[in-house]
Amino acid sequence: MKTVLLSTIIIAGLSATSVAAQVDTNGDGILTLDEVNAAFPDIKAEEFSAMDANADGVLDNDEVAAAQDAGLMPKT
Ligand SMILES: [Ca+2]
Ligand SMILES: [Ca+2]
Question: Which fold has domain 18-76?
Fold first, then answer.
Protein backbone atom coordinates (compact mmCIF):
# COMPACT_ATOMS: atom_id res chain seq x y z
CA MET A 1 0.00 0.00 0.00
CA LYS A 2 2.84 2.33 0.85
CA THR A 3 4.42 1.66 -2.56
CA VAL A 4 1.22 2.60 -4.36
CA LEU A 5 0.96 5.85 -2.42
CA LEU A 6 4.58 6.72 -3.17
CA SER A 7 4.11 6.03 -6.89
CA THR A 8 1.07 8.29 -6.94
CA ILE A 9 3.04 11.08 -5.32
CA ILE A 10 5.92 10.66 -7.79
CA ILE A 11 3.55 10.70 -10.78
CA ALA A 12 1.81 13.80 -9.43
CA GLY A 13 5.20 15.45 -9.02
CA LEU A 14 6.27 14.62 -12.55
CA SER A 15 3.08 15.96 -14.10
CA ALA A 16 3.70 19.31 -12.39
CA THR A 17 7.27 19.75 -13.61
CA SER A 18 6.46 22.91 -15.54
CA VAL A 19 6.89 26.09 -13.55
CA ALA A 20 4.25 27.68 -15.73
CA ALA A 21 1.70 25.11 -14.57
CA GLN A 22 2.43 25.99 -10.94
CA VAL A 23 2.54 29.75 -11.40
CA ASP A 24 -0.44 29.90 -13.77
CA THR A 25 -3.05 30.15 -11.03
CA ASN A 26 -6.01 30.74 -13.37
CA GLY A 27 -4.92 27.96 -15.72
CA ASP A 28 -5.15 29.95 -18.96
CA GLY A 29 -1.71 28.79 -20.09
CA ILE A 30 -0.03 32.18 -19.88
CA LEU A 31 1.57 34.04 -17.01
CA THR A 32 0.69 37.59 -16.07
CA LEU A 33 2.90 39.83 -13.97
CA ASP A 34 0.51 39.30 -11.05
CA GLU A 35 0.84 35.53 -11.31
CA VAL A 36 4.62 35.72 -11.58
CA ASN A 37 4.79 38.12 -8.62
CA ALA A 38 2.60 35.84 -6.51
CA ALA A 39 5.09 33.00 -7.03
CA PHE A 40 8.29 35.04 -7.27
CA PRO A 41 7.97 38.36 -5.39
CA ASP A 42 11.56 39.20 -6.32
CA ILE A 43 10.72 39.45 -10.04
CA LYS A 44 9.99 43.09 -10.81
CA ALA A 45 8.12 44.58 -13.73
CA GLU A 46 11.42 45.37 -15.47
CA GLU A 47 12.50 41.74 -15.30
CA PHE A 48 9.06 40.60 -16.42
CA SER A 49 9.35 42.88 -19.45
CA ALA A 50 12.77 41.42 -20.19
CA MET A 51 11.23 37.92 -20.20
CA ASP A 52 8.29 39.03 -22.35
CA ALA A 53 10.08 38.55 -25.66
CA ASN A 54 7.13 39.50 -27.90
CA ALA A 55 6.02 42.34 -25.58
CA ASP A 56 2.37 41.25 -25.40
CA GLY A 57 2.32 41.74 -21.63
CA VAL A 58 2.15 38.04 -20.72
CA LEU A 59 4.57 35.12 -20.68
CA ASP A 60 3.84 31.99 -22.71
CA ASN A 61 5.57 28.64 -22.23
CA ASP A 62 8.38 29.47 -24.67
CA GLU A 63 9.10 32.75 -22.93
CA VAL A 64 9.09 31.05 -19.52
CA ALA A 65 11.49 28.38 -20.79
CA ALA A 66 13.77 31.04 -22.26
CA ALA A 67 13.62 33.04 -19.03
CA GLN A 68 14.60 29.96 -17.04
CA ASP A 69 17.45 29.17 -19.43
CA ALA A 70 18.65 32.75 -19.04
CA GLY A 71 18.40 32.48 -15.24
CA LEU A 72 15.71 35.17 -15.02
CA MET A 73 13.12 32.84 -13.49
CA PRO A 74 13.83 30.12 -10.94
CA LYS A 75 13.26 26.51 -11.94
CA THR A 76 11.18 24.95 -9.18
CA1 LIG B 1 -2.57 32.75 -16.18
CA1 LIG C 1 4.81 37.38 -24.30
Answer: Recoverin; domain 1 (1.10.238)
Over residues 28-58, the pLDDT tens digits come to 999 999 999 999 999 999 999 999 999 999 9
Where exactly are the structural domains of the chain?
Answer: 18-76
7 alpha carbon – ligand 1 mean position (Å)? 29
Alpha carbons 26 and 6: distance in angstroms, whole number? 28
Q: How far is the CA of 31 from the centre of ligand 1 (A)?
A: 4
Ligand nearest to the CA of 61: 2
CA of 30 to the centre of ligand 2 (A): 8
Local structure of 32: helix, strand or coil: coil
